[in-house]
Amino acid sequence: MIRVLLADDHVLFRQGLRRLLEMEEDIRVVGEAGTGRAAHGAAVSLQPDVVLMDISMPDGDGLQATQFILGDCPYTKILVLTMHQEEEMVLQALSRGAHGYLLKDAESQQLVQAIRAVQQGDNFLSPAATTRVVQKLRHMNNGSPTRARLGKGDLEVLGLLAQGLSNQEIAWRLFLSEKTVRNRLSSIFQKLEVKNRTEAALRAVRDGLGPAGPPPV
Question: Fewer beta carbons under 10 A from the terminal one: N or C of the chain?
């Protein structure tokens, strides 16, 4: 059972989310919060698996709350659910430790998919957010040595990771075992000197290996 905390300052929106999520057999809403400070307090008290975090809230915004929650609840995953599409906002959320970023106009099944993905330790970015991050990071740096550091097999795995695929999905796509995918990811993290999937995915999209598809090698 995935235990979810809803953090949004609009009561009607929270009520709608609760009704939607309670239709899923593996998801249970354990609490709600209408401010950033309340979200932090509820997370510490309830220790949810996933927090659906809005950004624009009174009494401490969602980005601050994200940082505070992850400092006190290391096993909790943060999925930002917001109307903000700006690439700077996406990057700020990820830099604060958010595990996913989804826009409020997303389809209900995409939201459920995102909750399950981040709870399992994967990262999830909405297509719109991913596009904006790709554009920003490509503008920041077009000359990264990522390709020079990785072989063709590693580049394939990294490209699929940047598209938001789980280890299991990558394994299916490349006809590999999940253990092989995990081992390759560990090797990729070491070669790129990154700490986790989020940093590796950001490096990939910056260098054109993301959802738009890798350029010819």
Answer: C
Helix (DSSP H) and strand (DSSP E) numbers for the chain: 11, 6
Q: How many CB atoms are closer than 10 A to CB 88?
A: 11
> Is the distance from CB of 187 to CB of 160 less than 8 angstroms?
no
Residues 6+ apart with CB under 8 A from 114: 79, 100, 102, 106, 124, 126
Residue type, 148: A
Q: Which residues face 125 on adjacent strands?
A: 101
Encode pLDDT of 132-160 as tens digits.
666 665 555 444 556 667 888 888 898 88
Domains contained in the chain, CATH given: 2-133 (3.40.50.2300), 142-206 (1.10.10.10)
> Is residue 6 within 8 Å of residue 31, measured between CB atoms?
yes
Coil, helix or strand at residue 132:
helix
Q: Is 70 in contact with 76 (CB distance < 8 Å)?
A: yes
Coil, helix or strand at residue 194 = coil
Both tokens assigned to 53? 């975090």
Helix (H, G, I), strand (E, B) or coil at 174: helix
Angle in degrees, CA 79, 84, 85, rounded to 5: 100
Name the E strands within 100-158.
Answer: 100-103, 124-125
**3 state SS of 207:** coil
Q: Using 50, 70 and 90 to split pLDDT, how confident is the model at 214?
A: very low
| Among the ranges given (19-28, 123-132, 165-174), the one the predictor scored with the smallest mean pLDDT | 123-132
